[in-house]
Specification:
0% strand; Serine Threonine Protein Phosphatase 5, Tetratricopeptide repeat; mainly alpha
Length: 577
C-alpha cells in the first residue's frame, strides 16, 4: 500500500488558523496568555511546515515538537510528527502520534490514511483495511481507495474479502483487464475454475474484438485441461473476427495438440499469410517448428512458411534471423551468414545473432577485417559482455594490431571479473601472443605460465611458448619438454612438429631437427615459407649447403620468413636470427 501524504494547502491553512482566532471582546490576562501561546504554536507549526516542504525533516520535526509542547493535543501537529516518523521508519512512535491525531479528529481522511500506512508497515493489514473500509463508507469521494483495500485483503490472505473489494472496484472503474486478471488469479487459487472462466468471458464480452483477452482465457482453459472449450472459444471469435492471425496461431497450436495435423497446418499457413501479424510472432512460431524432429512433412510446411515470411516480412530482423537459424541447422553456413548479417543491419542489438555471426565467420576463415566490423559492433552494443571483447581482441591480433588487441583482451578480463574461468584462460593465452608481438617477451612468458598453471595441457600455449622460447634462445630445455609433449600426443601435426624441430635446432641437435622437420613437411599440404627456410637452415648445419640454398629459394616470398632470408640466398650462407 502506498498512499500519498502530501499536504493540502487548504488543510494546512485551516489547521494553522485553528490555533489563532482573535476575539474583538476584551480578554482576561489568562485568555490573553492562552491566545499568545496559540499564536506562538501557530508560528512554530508554520516554520515546521516550511522545512517539511524543503525536505529538511530534522528541522521540521524540531519545530513541530516545539509546537506540540504548547498544544499537545493539536491534531494537525500530531499528524505532521507521525508523518515524519513514518518516513523515518520509526513505526511505533508514528503510531502513538497518529492515534492522538485521529482521537482529536476521527473523521479526518488524512489522519486516518497515515494510520492505515502505519498499520500496513506493522503487518497489521486487516487493521489498515478496517480504516479504509471506514473512509469509503463515510464518503463517495473515497472510493478511489478500493484497490488499496483489495491489495490489503489479498496480502493478508483474505481472498473472499479481496474478491468483494475487486467487485466494488469493478463497479467503480468498469470491467478492465487488470481487475479481471486479479480476480481470475484469486478464483484459481481457490480452485474455482468456472468462476475464473466466467470473469474472462465477461471481459471478452465487454471488449469485443480484443484478441488478447481471448488468448488469455484460452491459456487458462488449455492449462486446466479444457482444450475443446478453448477451441470452441477461438473458433467463435474467428467467426466474428476472421482476420485475427494471432487467434489462428492459437487455433493451430490447439488443433496440433489434438492431433488434427491438416487442420492445424492450414491455420498456421493462413496466419503467416497475414501481413499484419508481427514478424517476431511468426519468427517465434517458426523457431518452435525448427526445434521439432525433422520430417519431410515438417520441411514442406516450413518451406511454405518461409516463403510467406520472405514475402510479407522481408525486412524484419527477427524473421531474417530465424531464416538464418534454419540455414545454419541445415549446414548452409554461407547462406545463414547472409540472413544473419541482414538481420544485424536492421537491429544490431541482438547478442545471440552477433555471437553466431562472429563465430561462424571465424570458422569459415572470413577476412579478419570483415570479422572486426562485427566484433566492434558487438562491443559497442554490449560493452559488458567479456566474450565480445575477446572476439574483438582476436580479430585485431590476427591483423597484427597489437596495441588494440591488448586493450580489448584487458577489457575482456576487466568485464569478466573472474566469473568465467575458461574464458579468462583463453584471454590470457591470447594476451601472451599479443605481448610477444609487441616485444614484451617477459609479459608474454608470464601470461603463458599463468595459463599452464591452471591448464597444463593447453596445446596452443605449449606450442607458442616453446616456439617463442626457441626464438629467444632461452630456457631451451623447458621449450623442448613442452614441444616434445605435443609431438607425442599429435604425431602428425605439422605445426607442432615444426616447433619441436626448431627447438632441437637451437639445442644444436641438427639430426633430430631434420627428422622432425621432414615429418612436418610431409604432413602439411602447403608448407609456409618459414618451414622451408627452417629446413634449409637445418640442412646447412648438416653440411648440405646446396640443398639448403634450394630450400631457402623455395621459401622466398612465403609467409613469416626471417629478415635474413634474402641475404642467406645472396651470400649462400646461414645468418643467425
Amino acid at each position: 500500500m502506498n498512499i500519498n501524504f502530501k499536504t493540502i494547502i487548504l488543510f494546512i491553512l485551516a489547521s494553522v488558523l485553528s490555533f489563532s482566532g482573535f476575539s474583538q471582546e476584551r480578554l482576561s490576562n489568562k485568555e490573553k496568555k492562552k491566545q499568545l501561546q496559540e499564536a506562538r504554536a501557530s508560528r512554530l507549526f508554520i516554520e515546521g511546515q516550511r522545512f517539511l516542504i524543503l525536505e529538511d525533516y530534522d528541522r521540521a520535526y524540531f519545530y513541530f515538537q516545539k509546537a506540540r509542547e504548547i498544544s499537545p493535543d493539536a491534531a494537525a501537529i500530531n499528524f505532521k510528527i507521525a508523518e515524519i516518523l513514518l518516513r523515518a521508519n520509526r513505526i511505533e512512535e508514528a503510531l502513538q502520534y497518529g492515534m492522538r491525531a485521529v482521537a482529536e479528529d476521527p473523521d479526518n481522511k488524512y489522519y486516518n490514511l497515515v494510520m492505515a500506512e502505519v498499520y500496513t508497515k506493522q503487518g497489521q493489514l486487516l487493521e489498515a483495511a478496517k480504516i479504509l473500509e471506514g473512509l469509503m463508507s463515510n464518503s463517495e469521494e473515497n472510493q478511489n481507495y478500493i484497490l488499496d483495500l483489495a491489495s490489503l485483503y489479498l496480502s493478508a490472505g483474505d481472498l473472499d474479502n479481496a474478491l468483494k473489494a475487486l467487485d466494488r472496484a469493478e463497479e467503480y472503474y468498469g470491467i478492465v483487464e487488470q481487475l479481471t486478471h486479479q480476480k481470475q488469479r484469486i478464483h484459481l487459487r481457490k480452485n474455482n475454475l468456472n468462476a475464473a472462466v466466467k470473469e474472462g468471458e465477461k471481459l471478452i464480452e465487454a471488449h469485443p474484438g480484443n484478441s488478447q483477452y481471448v488468448l488469455n482465457l484460452v491459456e487458462i482453459l488449455f492449462n486446466n485441461g479444457r482444450t475443446n472449450q478453448a477451441i470452441d472459444l477461438v473458433n467463435k471469435s474467428l467467426e466474428a473476427y476472421p482476420d485475427q492471425a494471432d487467434l489462428q496461431l492459437a487455433a493451430y497450436a490447439l488443433y496440433k495438440e489434438q492431433g488434427e495435423v491438416e487442420k492445424s497446418e492450414s491455420l498456421i499457413i493462413e496466419a503467416f499469410a497475414n501481413p499484419d501479424l508481427d514478424g517476431k510472432v511468426k519468427a517465434d512460431a517458426f523457431s518452435d517448428l525448427l526445434r521439432e524432429m525433422r520430417t519431410v512433412r515438417r520441411d514442406s510446411l516450413m518451406d511454405k512458411l518461409e516463403k510467406s515470411m520472405r514475402e510479407y516480412n522481408a525486412n524484419d530482423p527477427d524473421v531474417l534471423s530465424v531464416i538464418g537459424d534454419r540455414n545454419l541447422i541445415n549446414n548452409r553456413k554461407e547462406e545463414a551468414l547472409v540472413f544473419y548479417r541482414s538481420s544485424l543491419d536492421k537491429n544490431p542489438a541482438n547478442a545471440q545473432v552477433l555471437q553466431t555471426v562472429i563465430t561462424a565467420m571465424f570458422e569459415l576463415q572470413k577476412d579478419y577485417s570483415e570479422i572486426e566490423k562485427y566484433t566492434i559492433m558487438a562491443v559497442d552494443e554490449f560493452p559488458e559482455r567479456p566474450e565480445f571483447w575477446f572476439f574483438d581482441g582476436t580479430a585485431k591480433l590476427t591483423q597484427k594490431k597489437g596495441e588494440e588487441a591488448e586493450n580489448s583482451f584487458l577489457k575482456s578480463l576487466e568485464t569478466n571479473k573472474g566469473r568465467n574461468i575458461q574464458l579468462e584462460l583463453l584471454v590470457k593465452a591470447s594476451l601472451g601472443d599479443t605481448y610477444h608481438m609487441l616485444g614484451k617477451k617477459q609479459e608474454a612468458f608470464d601470461a603463458y605460465d599463468e595459463v599452464l598453471a591452471s591448464r597444463p595441457e593447453d596445446e596452443h600455449v605449449l606450442n607458442n611458448y616453446a616456439y617463442f622460447l626457441s626464438l629467444s634462445k632461452k630456457d631451451l630445455e623447458k621449450a623442448k619438454s613442452m614441444s616434445e609433449r605435443l609431438v607425442k600426443k599429435f604425431p602428425n601435426n605439422s605445426t607442432y612438429l615444426d616447433t619441436h624441430a626448431w627447438v632441437l635446432f637451437q639445442l644444436k641437435d641438427y639430426e633430430g631437427a631434420r627428422k622432425y622437420m621432414e615429418r612436418a613437411l610431409e604432413n602439411d599440404d602447403s608448407p609456409s615459407g618459414v618451414m622451408w627456410e627452417h629446413y634449409g637452415d637445418i640442412l646447412y648445419h648438416l653440411g648440405n649447403k646446396n640443398e639448403a640454398l634450394s630450400y631457402w629459394k623455395k621459401a622466398e616470398g612465403g609467409e613469416e620468413t626471417s629478415e635474413y632470408l634474402l641475404k642467406k640466398i645472396k651470400d649462400q650462407k646461414y645468418y643467425d636470427e
